[in-house]
Design brief:
single chain, 357 residues, alpha+beta, Jelly Rolls, 2 domains, nine-stranded mixed beta sheet, five-stranded antiparallel beta sheet, 18% helix, F-box_dom
């Protein structure tokens, strides 16, 4: 069976008729223009014509974003791209790339604390995505350990995939099919360190990011986790010891862009305890028993703030964002803040579980 398939793909069927190996490489390349990068890499295994077309610069240039040279300069010297195939450039950009937007505080953090802002190309569509760590944000009370703590996590999808490459190692890059990072994993944090709130009355998180985003419609969201998570006996567990106050008043999310666009939304981060009609039973139960089954607890959730449009890529887009709950009549706590994400609207549906509008 294997030999028959090999003959079909390389030399044609045993009766001497035409096979896939007889298709001109230029025709295969025309078909590849309509396929996704992973599909192209899978078909490249069929025969030499398909392999040749799958390495064509003409094919891969159509998969790259219009500002791919700017993105490439984040990782390698500006002249390195001239010696690489477009396929290799695409594979490199599919990994998260740290970038500096000129904020001096961010530069210090990058050298001492790791990645704060990353951008990457979605390996299925070639669209540009980015994420900003809580480390790059201004958080009220973050210096006081009575309120906030920085918590390391082994869940980070960036740390597991980020490879530091220089110009000399680009020739040894993995092929695209070996690129494991595909943006967001719904069950994990994006970054290796998250901000954990124990208790506070004035809750406010602000941030700014500036980047030459290519033309597209983007959605901005905060990634939040109710409860403190850890691993015990190889299993992921969450503690809700400090989680309280998020069902009393909603959190307000906002953003504005340098070209005048803005959006806001409000959302309760937790669910109120429901009355099941048996008050005596409720009084005997632990107050946390209901919340441990709440779908908003114990998982990473992306809270959508809104959408904005970028029409020109020749200038930087600055986005200011915030989330706050500043009603000081009650305290709140037991919450992890991971990041703010900016991704094309069309990719939002691929992020799986945990997206709230």
């Amino acid at each position: 069976m294997g030999a028959s398939l090999s003959n079909l793909t390389e030399n044609g069927p045993s009766n001497g008729g035409p096979g896939l190996g007889d298709i001109p490489e230029s025709c295969v390349a025309c078909v590849f223009l309509y396929l996704s990068p992973p599909e192209i890499c899978n078909l490249a295994r069929l025969n030499r014509a398909f392999r040749g077309a799958a390495s064509s610069d003409a094919v891969w240039e159509t998969k790259l974003p219009p500002n791919y040279l700017q993105l490439f300069d984040l990782r390698a010297r500006p002249d390195v791209h001239q010696s690489l195939r477009k396929k290799d450039i695409f594979a490199l950009l599919s990994r998260p790339l740290p970038f500096d937007d000129g904020n001096k505080a961010h530069i210090l953090f990058i050298f001492s604390l790791g990645q704060l802002q990353v951008v990457w190309v979605d390996k299925f569509t070639g669209r540009v995505c980015m994420s900003v760590s809580a480390k790059a944000m201004a958080i009220t009370g973050i210096e006081d350990r009575r309120y906030w703590n920085w918590v390391p996590t082994e869940e980070s999808s960036i740390e597991q995939s980020l490879a530091v490459l220089d110009g000399d190692s680009c020739a040894h890059m993995h092929q695209l099919e070996h690129v494991k990072f595909n943006g967001f994993c719904s069950g994990s944090a994006i970054f290796s360190v998250v901000a954990y709130l124990q208790q506070i009355w004035w809750f406010e998180v602000d941030g700014t990011v500036k980047f030459p985003l290519p033309p597209d419609i983007y959605t901005l969201s905060f990634r939040i986790h109710l409860g403190r998570f850890s691993r015990r006996l190889g299993r992921r567990v969450s503690s809700f010891e400090h989680t309280h106050g998020w069902e009393i008043k909603p959190v307000r999310f906002e953003f504005s862009t340098s070209n005048g666009q803005q959006a806001s939304s409000e959302c309760f981060l937790d669910e109120p305890q429901q009355d099941d009609g048996d008050s005596s039973n409720n009084n005997n139960n632990n107050s946390n028993s209901y919340y441990t089954t709440s779908h908003k607890r114990g998982c990473w959730i992306d809270y959508k703030v809104g959408e904005f449009t970028v029409r020109q890529s020749d200038c930087e887009t600055e986005v200011r964002f915030s989330m706050k709950q500043i009603d000081c009549t009650h305290s709140k706590g037991g919450l992890c803040v991971d990041s703010v994400s900016i991704i094309p609207v069309e990719l939002k549906g691929h992020r799986g579980r945990g997206v709230l509008k």
